[in-house]
C-alpha cells in the first residue's frame, strides 16, 4: 500500500497554533511513512468561509516548510461529486428527505433522551415526510435492535450493527453506537449546503487517502464517516487523532475562542512548540533551521508513535 495523507483546513481564518498541530502531525506521519501529503481546502460551509483565508493558509503552510506533493484542491470546486454520491445513496435507499425543523427535533428529545447539546434525530421522517416540505437529506443508521449489534464490524460491506468500532493509532480502541449516540445524520443541509461528513468521505475516497491524521475534536465524527464509507462502498482509511490544543479556559483553540494567527516570520518557534504539544522529544539544543527541525521531528514522531499505548 502506498501511503497518502492530507491536511484539510477550513478557511474560516488564518492558520493558528491549533491547526498548526494538525498540519504538523499529518505531515510528519506522511514523511515518516515515505508517503504523499496533500492539502485540501474545505470551503463548502459558505457562511463560515472567510474570503482570502484559503490563500493565506496555503502561503503560511509554505513558510512553515510544508510543501504539498500535489496541487491543493478546493471542495467548492467539487460539489458535483457530492451530488453524485448523494444520488447513489438515494438510489440504494440509504438516505431519505427530512422535513423536521431544529425545534421539532429539540422538542422530541424531551420525550426520548436528553444529551447535552447534540440532538439525536428520532427518525420522524424515515417512513415519509408526513405532509411537510423536504428540508434536508439524512443517512439512515442501523437500528440498535439488530441482533448482531455487538458484532465487530470491520467488514467493508455494509454491516448492520449500530455499533461502529475502530482502532485509533493514537487514542486506542474506539466505539460508538450510531443509533443511540448520533441518529440518522444530515448529508445535505436545509440551507442547501453539503454537510462536512459527506464531503470529507467523498474526497478522502477520491483522493485515495489511506491515513487520516487530524485533531481529536473529530474523533466523534469518525464512526459516522466509517458508516458512510460502508454505504458508499469505499475503503476506510487508518485513523489517528492528536490531542487538541485548548486555551486557558479549556476550550478548543479556534478563531471563535480567540486563537492568534501564526507569525509567518518565525516558523521555527511555533513548530517547536507544536512538537512539544505532541510530546515529541527533539534533540538538545533545539534545531535552528527548518530543514534540521524537519529531520529531527520525523525521527521524534517515529519514537513517539512507538511509545503510545495504541502502538
Ligand atoms: N476541515 C476540518 C477542520 O478544519 C478537518 C477535516 C478533517 O481533517 O477531516 O476542522
Automatic annotation (TrEMBL):
Zn(2+) binds at residues 98, 100, 121, 125. A motif ('HIGH' region) lies at residues 9-19. Residues 4-261 form the Glutamyl/glutaminyl-tRNA synthetase class Ib catalytic domain. Its cofactor is Zn(2+). A motif ('KMSKS' region) lies at residues 252-256. Pfam families: tRNA-synt_1c. The keyword Cell division does not apply. Its EC number is 6.1.1.-. L-glutamate binds at residues 6-10, 42, 196, 214. ATP binds at residue 255. It is an enzyme of class 6 (ligase). One of its GO terms (molecular function) is ligase activity. The keyword ATP-binding applies. Keywords: Aminoacyl-tRNA synthetase, ATP-binding, Ligase, Metal-binding, Nucleotide-binding, Protein biosynthesis, Zinc. Binds 1 zinc ion per subunit. HAMAP family: Glu_Q_tRNA_synth. NCBIfam families: PRK05710.1-2 (NF004313), PRK05710.1-3 (NF004314), queuosine_YadB (TIGR03838). Belongs to the class-I aminoacyl-tRNA synthetase family. GluQ subfamily. Catalyzes the tRNA-independent activation of glutamate in presence of ATP and the subsequent transfer of glutamate onto a tRNA(Asp). Glutamate is transferred on the 2-amino-5-(4,5-dihydroxy-2-cyclopenten-1-yl) moiety of the queuosine in the wobble position of the QUC anticodon. This is Glutamyl-Q tRNA(Asp) synthetase.
Amino acid at each position: 500500500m502506498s501511503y497518502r495523507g492530507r491536511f484539510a483546513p477550513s478557511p474560516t481564518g488564518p492558520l493558528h497554533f491549533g491547526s498548526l498541530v494538525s498540519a504538523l502531525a499529518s505531515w510528519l506521519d506522511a514523511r515518516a511513512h515515505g508517503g504523499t501529503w496533500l492539502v485540501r481546502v474545505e470551503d463548502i460551509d459558505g457562511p463560515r468561509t472567510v474570503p482570502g483565508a484559503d490563500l493565506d493558509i496555503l502561503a503560511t503552510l509554505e513558510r512553515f516548510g510544508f510543501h504539498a506533493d500535489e496541487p491543493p484542491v478546493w471542495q467548492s470546486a467539487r460539489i458535483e461529486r457530492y451530488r453524485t454520491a448523494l444520488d447513489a445513496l438515494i438510489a440504494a435507499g440509504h438516505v431519505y428527505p427530512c422535513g423536521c425543523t431544529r425545534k421539532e427535533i429539540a422538542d422530541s428529545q424531551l420525550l426520548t433522551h436528553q444529551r447535552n447539546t447534540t440532538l439525536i434525530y428520532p427518525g420522524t421522517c424515515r417512513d415519509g415526510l408526513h405532509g411537510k416540505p423536504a428540508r434536508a437529506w439524512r443517512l439512515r443508521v442501523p437500528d440498535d435492535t439488530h441482533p448482531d449489534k455487538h458484532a465487530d464490524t470491520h467488514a467493508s460491506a455494509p454491516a448492520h450493527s449500530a455499533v461502529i468500532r475502530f482502532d485509533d493509532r493514537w487514542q486506542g480502541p474506539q466505539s460508538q453506537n450510531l443509533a443511540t449516540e448520533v441518529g440518522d445524520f444530515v448529508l445535505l443541509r436545509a440551507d442547501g449546503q453539503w454537510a462536512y461528513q459527506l464531503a470529507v468521505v467523498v474526497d478522502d475516497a477520491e483522493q485515495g487517502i489511506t491515513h487520516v491524521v487530524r485533531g481529536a475534536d473529530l474523533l466523534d465524527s469518525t464512526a459516522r464517516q466509517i458508516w458512510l464509507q460502508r454505504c458508499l462502498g469505499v475503503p476506510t482509511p487508518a485513523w489517528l487523532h492528536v490531542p487538541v490544543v485548548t486555551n486557558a479556559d479549556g476550550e478548543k483553540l479556534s478563531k471563535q475562542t480567540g486563537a492568534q494567527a501564526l507569525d509567518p516570520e518565525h516558523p521555527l518557534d511555533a513548530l517547536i512548540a507544536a512538537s512539544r504539544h505532541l510530546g515529541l522529544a527533539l534533540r538538545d539544543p533545539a534545531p535552528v533551521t527548518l530543514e534540521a527541525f524537519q529531520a529531527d521531528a520525523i525521527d521524534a514522531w517515529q519514537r513517539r508513535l512507538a511509545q503510545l499505548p495504541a502502538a
